Amino acid sequence: MNTEKKLMGLINSVRVLTSTLDLDEVLNHLIEEVLNVIEGANASVLFLYDKKIDRLYAKTAAGFDMEHLKKISLKPGEGMSGKTFLSRKGRIFLSETDTVEGMENISDHTMKYYGDALGQLRYPASALCVPLISKEDCIGVLTVDIYEKNVQFDESDLQLLETFAVQATIAIENAILFSRNERTKKMHEELSKVSLSQGGLEEITKTLAGLIDSKVAVIDEFLDVIVSSTVQSEKTAKKLAITYERLFEQAMKDEGVIYETIELEQNQQTRVYLFPIKTYKYTIGYLTIFLEGEAILDTIDRFAVEQASVIFALEMNRRETSTINDLKYSGYILDQILQNGYSALSHNQLSKINFFDNQNDRYVTVQAYIKDPLLSIKEFSDKKNQLIRYIYREIAGLQFKTLVLDKNMEVVFLLMVPSRVEEAELQRQLTKVFNQLQKRAKEMLDISLLVGIGRMVPHLKEVQSSYRDTQKCIDFLQSTNHLNMILSYQELGTQRLFLKTERNELKDFVNDMLGPIIAYDQENSTELLATLKVYLESNQNMALAAKRLYVHTNTIKYRLNTIKEIVSIDHLDGKKAFDLQLGLYVQEFLQL
Description:
Residues 22-182 form the GAF domain. It is a single chain. The protein is of the alpha+beta class. The chain has four domains: 3-177, Beta-Lactamase, CATH 3.30.450.40; 198-318, Beta-Lactamase (2-Layer Sandwich), CATH 3.30.450; 341-492, Reverse transcriptase/Diguanylate cyclase domain (Alpha-Beta Plaits), CATH 3.30.70.270; 503-591, Arc Repressor Mutant, subunit A. It has helices at 3-17, 23-37, 66-69, 79-87, 96-102, 108-118, 155-196, 200-212, 231-243, 245-254, 299-340, 347-353, 377-396, 423-445, 463-479, 489-492, 503-524, 528-537, 542-549, 553-567, 574-591; strands at residues 43-50, 55-62, 73-74, 91-93, 126-134, 137-146, 215-220, 225-228, 258-265, 268-278, 283-292, 361-371, 401-407, 410-418, 448-453, 486-488. Helix 2 (23-37) runs antiparallel to helix 7 (155-196) and helix 18 (528-537) packs across helix 19 (542-549).
C-alpha cells in the first residue's frame, strides 16, 4: 500500500472513530480500522489501564476469542504490551524471536488464556505496540500482530500506528466520559425500577448480575451471605467468607473497593471485587462480584456499581428496619412485663407478637450488660447500634421465640422454651450463643459484655424473678474478678447471699471463723484449712477426704483434732460445722 493510500485510510478511520460517542461502538470501529490501516495485520488487541488496580486489561480484540482474552490482565512491564506501557514509546518486534523474548515474563495463567483465545498457543511472527497517551498519562496500549511467517512490520507501519493511536486516544476518552454517565444512569434506573416495584434485594442482585454479566452476591458485615444471583454464586460467596476473612477485614479497614485474584477451587482462579455497602455511619455489607480467571471489571461498570451501591444500602436498611420495628415492639412488651407484671398486658398486645402464657412452655431471662465502655457518648451510641444489629442477627438464628429489650447499658432477653428442652441443654445453647456474642463485641467493637442467665420459670407471671436472677449474676460478675464472664443463677449458688453485704463485714466474718486456722497454717506450713474444706465437702467422711487428698485416714484424723484444739470445740458438726463451711464460702467469694 503506497503512502497516499495509507494516509487516506487513516483519515477515513479517524472519521469512523469520531462518528459516535458510544464506547462499545468506538472500540469496535477502532479494532476493525486498525487492521485496515496496518497492512498485513492478522490480529489486534486493545489493552486499557486500570489505575486503581494497576493492571492492563483486554478491552476488545480482533483475531482473538474475547471469552478467553477477557480473563487476562497484565502488570505494567509484563509481556510486549506491558513493556510498552512502562516505556511509553512505540515498539516494533521484527521477528518471532523478538516476540518470544517480549512475552517471556508473562505468567502461566495468562499464557494459557492467550493460547485459548487463539485456539492454540502461537507466537506472533511480528508485532507492533503503541501506547495511548493522554495528558502525559498512558491510558492503554494498542497491539497489532502478524502470524504469517513471511510477513513483518517495518518502521513506517509503527509510525502509522502511532498516528492512528493519537486520534484513537481522543475518541476513547470522549466515549469513556459519555459512556460512564450513560452506564451509571442506566444501571441506576434499572435497579431503582426493581426496588420501587418491591422486587426486594434478591431481584436487585439478579438485575445487577445481568447488567454486568457477572456473578454477584451480597454479604453482610457479619459475613453472612444474604442473597446471590445464582446458586453457584451463593456457594462461592460462602466459601469466600469462610476462607478469605482477611479480605473483609481489609475492606473494613480501607473503606473502599478492593479486589484480589484468589483460588477457591484447585487450579481455578477467580477475581473478586468487594464494594462496601454503607449507611451514613458505617459499612453494613459488601456487594461481591466474581469474575473468572484474572478478568477485570470494566472501569465504567465499576464506577456505575460504586454509584449503585446506595440502592443496595437502602434495600438492606428497609429489610432491617422491618425486623427492628418488630423487635422494638417486643422490647416494649418485655419492659411492661418486667416493670408491671404479665397481668398488666392486654390480650391484644400479646397477640401482636404471639407471646402467651402456655403450659407447654417455660421462660428464661438473660441479661447482657456492657461493662465500663471508655467511649464518648457518640462513639458508644454508634457501637451500641452495631452491637444491637448483631444481637438481632443472632436472635433470628435461635430456635426459641425471643423478646429483646434494649435499655441503656443492658440488653434483656426473654426466651420462650418448649418444656421438652432440658435446662442443661438450654444452658449449653445459651452459653454458646452468648460466648460468640462476647467474642464479636470484643473483636469488632472493643466492647466487653457481662452475661447473666436467670432461672427457668413455668409462667410469665414469674419472669420478674428470673430477671432479678440475672441482675444478681451481673452484680456478682461486676464485684469480683471472675474469669468467666457468663454466669447462671444456678452457678451463683450461695454466693448470691453475700452480694449486698459490705466486704469489710465479710472479711471480719472470715477472720472470726477461720482466722486461727489460717494463722496456724502460716506459722507451721500446714494444710489444715485445705483439709477442713475437703472434709466438709466430703460430707464429713474421713475416708473419702483422705482419698481426695492422697493421704492416710489417720492423717485426716490428726489434722481435724488439731483444728478442734485451735478453734476450741469438742465436736466438728452441727452449727459449728455450718459456720466453718460458710466461712470457707465467704473466703472463696472474697478471693474472686
